[in-house]
């Protein structure tokens, strides 16, 4: 496999570890970018980007990064907090009055950001096309009764997070959340990152496909068992209502929409650049970054059925939990995306990491490929 790009010679072992990913015949395409102290020390890509395996992954290939998108939305919300336009502990209904329905009047902006609001799924079955109708989805969530009482734990909101945080941003800013992310984050930092992709960019988007034969770790199997056996379970509904959530990745309408929980499109450079921007103070001041990366929710996740730990819109490291560590320092924060892509910062090493793949693994939380690369990077520093 021909590996393209650049690496600082201290990180030759990282290049070798990246190349070793392609020893697996199912591997398709991937990119890795690492910045230390704001300087790029690794920027690699390899493999194929198209459905038929004929088109090489290029320097400017981008891919759907799934939940790696969530921290971008959270940072916009936190910037609004810094500007006095949002209050973390104000009720969501202050900005979005309809949200108070069905006993949600006490749910705060903070509860939404750290997955404690009890809204990871919708009970009423929605048609597939509802996924692309912002008004339908936000109205359904405003009317939804929480799945558990406030203060009784947390449950990850895989996709509803995007409408919840996105509508909050839209109400305060008067523009789509993808436009806010572009104006506040991507443009200032010159990141090739998009929530709401222009049709003119479609030809450089990697086709996403699922690997075959690997059932994943125990957490993945536990979740799969519930999803296969109970269509009405909250975990099942969170991934399958509307039923198009899991099947839309490569569709034009998915790429075009602004869904800041799951449909960000970017490359490894954009993830590393985003976390470098958090570490150097370009995006948030120290106080707000401290708030974002402080532990808010920890323990058994009601949706993912595995142990999770969250700040505000970011997933915090759990060094002693195999599927929940980034593979570096215990203060690391960031977010994995479904199937393997991952972005995070390790403040102790002043390091920003981005890994992007179009071959979806079956894991919940962290993918072993990204962990392996992170451990190799740590060894080189």
From TrEMBL:
Question: Which domain of life does this protein belong to?
Answer: Bacteria
Q: Give the matching InterPro entries.
A: Beta-lactam-related (IPR001466), Beta-lactam/transpept-like (IPR012338), Beta-lactamase/esterase (IPR052907)
Q: Which residues form the Beta-lactamase-related domain?
A: 16-373
The answer to whether keyword Metal-binding applies is no
Q: Which GO terms describe its molecular function?
A: hydrolase activity
Q: Name one Pfam family in it.
A: Beta-lactamase
Per the UniProt entry, the Enzyme Commission number(s) are 3.1.1.103
Keywords, sorted A to Z: Hydrolase
Does Repeat show up as a keyword for this record?
A: no
Q: What is this protein called?
A: CubicO group peptidase, beta-lactamase class C family
Recorded source organism is Ectopseudomonas alcaliphila
